[in-house]
Specification:
By secondary structure, the chain is an alpha+beta fold. The chain has 3 helices and 9 strands, in the order E-H-E-E-H-E-E-H-E-E-E-E. It is globular and about 45 Å long.
């Protein structure tokens, strides 16, 4: 990948207290287990769309798309429990499910970004979108106990979303916020 191409993604920004709460769950899940590369608390977010190999011209178009977003107010979210992709029997990605409980602004935003990406010729993931917070990536076999944490009563508010650049390095991804906008 050349220096002019970037790995970027759109994400819902989590409040600090929620990042800290999830970090506590990760610490508990970790318990001296090296089979998972856990996400640092500062990097926790809800991914809307991931785009790799993006040039600066298209990045400018996406920033304009963000500027055109008409704020619909904050979104109230709730946790739905632990799960994994492709499934808990042989997890590759461990995540915490979440869903909006006050309207559709998150799904409206997801659909707008998807439309804008398609308009500039960016291929998007065709799988159904599952709002989630990635907790870790499994390196070796890991037994997920998805019923171990009951978080269904916990809710939180999302106020902003961001376009974030991701640079991979030996210690994991390094994120730089390109642009942030009120939800």
């Amino acid at each position: 990948m050349s220096d002019s191409l970037k790995r970027v993604f759109f994400a819902l920004d989590l409040p600090k207290n929620i990042q800290d709460r999830i970090s506590d769950i990760i610490l508990d899940l970790n318990k001296n287990d090296n089979s998972v590369k856990w996400v640092d608390s500062a990097n926790l977010h809800v991914t809307l769309h991931f785009i790799s190999d993006l040039d600066s011209l298209i990045l400018g178009v996406l920033k304009k798309s963000m500027a055109d977003w008409k704020s619909k107010g904050t979104a109230r979210m709730k946790f739905g429990g632990l799960n994994a992709f492709p499934g808990p029997e042989r997890p590759k990605i461990i995540f915490l499910k979440c869903e909006q409980i006050n309207g559709t602004s998150i799904h409206d935003l997801y659909a707008k970004i998807e439309k804008d990406l398609k308009e500039v010729g960016i291929k998007i993931d065709d799988r159904a979108w599952t709002p989630h917070i990635t907790l870790g990536r499994v390196k070796n076999f890991y037994k997920l106990k998805s019923d171990e944490y009951e978080l269904a009563d916990e809710t939180f508010e999302i106020k902003t979303f961001s376009l974030i650049e991701s640079k991979l390095n030996a210690n994991g991804p390094e994120y730089t916020i390109v642009e942030t906008k009120n939800l």
